[in-house]
Amino acid sequence: MKNYFGAWLALLCVLCSVSAQRANTPAKASSPLEQTLMDAEKSFLEAVRKGDVAFLKRTLTDDFSFVLYDGQLYSRQDMIDQFGDGSYNFQPYDMKVVTAGDGVAIVTYDVIVRVRPEEDQGPPPRYQHFSTVWVPQGDAWKMKFQQMTTSHWGDW
Q1: Residue 88: which of 112, 67, 109, 66 has the closest Cα?
Q2: CA distance 83 to 121
Q3: Is the pLDDT of residue 100 over 60?
Q4: What is the largest CA-CA distance in the chain?
Q5: Tens digits of per-residue pLDDT, 57-97?
Q6: The pTM of the whole model exceeds 0.90
Q7: Are the C-beta atoms of residues 37 and 136 closer than 8 Å to each other?
Q8: Which one of 45, 61, 73, 145 is separated from 129 by 20 to 30 angstroms, measured CA to CA?
Q9: What is the pLDDT of residue 119?
Q10: Which DSSP state fits 5?
Q11: What pLDDT is stored for residue 25 in this prediction?
Q12: In the sheet where 127-137 sits, what is the strand order?
């Protein structure tokens, strides 16, 4: 029994050491493309918070579509109608950029959905994961597709 306990203790020490080394490793700096796309995504979230319909119209491609947390596919106009009123406040964290070939990139991240207390009557789920497909059009990056996925079902 003592040997078994000793083995577990040694394994625990090794795991703690590896974890400490990872925590001290500096994060990789973002490339200019990654920073541009993360800034574009943050601008989108700020436009939603403010209800900036002009920004949405300027930033969404003509054939933009999105999947809301309910699993339904919606159109560009649905995005403008749903998120153009300034009633949503998304707090993003753990944002990453994945390039998907020439001229396509995906920004993926987690969000906490903040709503006014008087509007907090159930859905949407407060913890979600967003993935946005960005494509270059002219000299700007435009949103082509977005999916919002519930992260925690228990917080309805």
Answers
A1: 112
A2: 18
A3: yes
A4: 69
A5: 999 999 999 999 889 999 999 999 999 988 889 999 999 99
A6: no
A7: no
A8: 61
A9: 62
A10: H
A11: 55
A12: 73-75, 60-67, 140-150, 127-137, 105-114, 89-99
Q: Which residues, including other chains, have CB under 8 Å from residue 80's CB and lie 6 or more apart? A: 53, 56, 57, 60
Instruction: State how beta strands 89-99 and 140-150 pair.
Output: unpaired
Per-residue confidence at 11, pLDDT binned at 50, 70, 90? very low
For 141, list phi and psi in degrees, rounded to 5: -90, 135
Question: Where would I find the H helices in 60-130?
Answer: 76-83
**What average pLDDT does range 14-19 have in this prediction?**
46
User: d(Cα 93, Cα 27) in Å, to the nearest integer?
Assistant: 15
Q: Give me the percent of the chain exceeding a pLDDT of 90.
A: 59
Site of tokens 């396509």:
104
Is the Cβ–Cβ distance between 94 and 110 less than 8 Å?
A: yes
Cα 43 to Cα 121: distance, rounded to the nearest angstrom = 27
Residue in the structure block whose two tokens are 């949503």: 88
DSSP 8-state class, residue 59: H
Residue type at 18?
A: V
Q: Which residues contact 118 (CB under 8 A, 6 or more apart)?
A: none
